[in-house]
Amino acid sequence: MISANYFPLTCNSTRISIIGAGKVGSTTAQRIAEKNIANVILLDIIEGWPQGIALDLMQARGVEHHDREIIGTNNYDDTAGSEIVVIAAGMPRKPNMSRNDLIKINAKIVVEAAKEAIARSPQAILIIVTNPLDVMTYLAWENTGLPPNRVMGMAGVLDSSRFQNFIAMELGISVADIKATVLGSHGDLMVPLPRYSTVNGIPLTDIMDTETIEHLVERTRNGGAEIVKLMQTGSAYFAPASAVSVMIESILLNQSRLLPCCAYLQGEYGLEDIFLGVPCRLGCRGVEKIFELDLTDMERIAFMDSAELIRQNIEEAKAILR
Fold first, then answer.
1. What band does 322 get if pLDDT is binned at 50, 70 and 90?
2. Cis omega before residue 203 (within 30°)?
3. Which one of 65, 66, 186, 215 is the catalytic residue?
4. Of 89, 217, 250, 293, which is most buried, counting CB atoms within 10 Å of its CB?
5. Residue 56 host element (H or E)
């Protein structure tokens, strides 16, 4: 007799493993399956939880009209052979809590999850979603031994989408006509770039006054905190799941999209040995190219301040793991 929670993979065997079946992980699984991108293995340490989420998602197939398989599991062995591994495990933010407050809690969780998953899927590309994202991405890379192009963090896509949305709301213009660029850390020191943000090709700085732009920049920096404050008992998950699914799609379909991601810098922007949000070309080999933007003095200072905070937090995290 076949268990109700077991679903054999079909011939279309491209698989994504998502570690952490909380709201971000489970919503990412939903996005991937319903976009018909890949089969999904959803892993969590709570027995029965990922199996239940997977069964629920599978029962939506008749409505959503896709044939992707979703497996819920508590066993890393079931993730073997994954093309991409997404780490969404860890504690989300609570009110009055910064992303950096999560270092002590999430560092060990992310490192263990990354090592266990990559041991079963040594050729996989690793995408980190857990906060504080830039630090967690560095720890995952350092502890798995993967080449830098195969490790990245999801942040810039989300932050740029938030900036894009706030611009659209302010102008009353379709978000489809707006492109926004955000660099730096996924936190209070992120660097939204109005000069590189456009409305149907027109620079934002040409159609919006400085005071309004500064307001939108600040709201973007606090986009996650605003949601945490409103929800009280949780944090954002719909937008983060959409952001990571776009990255997965670009990699698996080799779309070579230019997306802002947390990537390893080796001299770009004058920085070495750090993961930070920058524009990247994402394709089947992961981060295939990092693009360097021409920054003003003020933008560069803000970018360097962001990097310095990340370095400090990385050292703090390493001390915790010793």
1. confident
2. no
3. 186
4. 89
5. helix 49-58
Q: Are strands 272-283 and 257-266 parallel, antiparallel or unpaired?
A: antiparallel
pLDDT band at 187 (very low <50, low <70, confident <90, very high): confident
**pLDDT value at residue 237:** 95
Return the SS3 of 19.
Answer: strand
What DSSP designation does 92 have? P
**Dist CA 286 CA 135 (whole Å):** 19
Over residues 101-129, the pLDDT tens digits come to: 789 889 999 999 999 999 999 999 999 99
CB of 62 closer than 8 Å to CB of 41: no
Identify whether the C-beta of residue 255 lies closer than 8 Å to the C-beta of residue 272: no
Residues 6+ apart with CB under 8 A from 170: 208, 212, 216
Task: Give CA–CA dist 7/159, Å, rounded.
Answer: 35
130 touches 109 (CB < 8 A)? yes
Q: Which two tokens stand for residue 104?
A: 């002590």
Per-residue pLDDT of 261-286, as tens digits, reads: 999 999 999 999 999 999 999 999 99
- Residue 194, token pair as written in the block: 């109005």
- Give the model's pLDDT for residue 8: 45
pLDDT at residue 188 greater than cutoff 90: no
Q: What is the three-class DSSP state of 203? A: strand
The model's pTM: 0.93
Please determine, for residue 315, whether its predicted confidence score (pLDDT) is greater than 50. yes
- Residue 275, C-beta contacts closer than 8 angstroms, at least 6 positions apart: 134, 137, 138, 141, 151, 152, 153, 262, 263, 264, 265, 310
Please, which residues have CB within 8 angstroms of residue 242's CB and are 6 or more apart in sequence? 31, 161
State how far Cα 123 lies from the chain centre: 20
H/E segment holding residue 174: none
**DSSP letters of 222-240?**
THHHHHHHHHSS----HHH
Euclidean distance between CA atoms 131 and 9, whole angstroms: 31
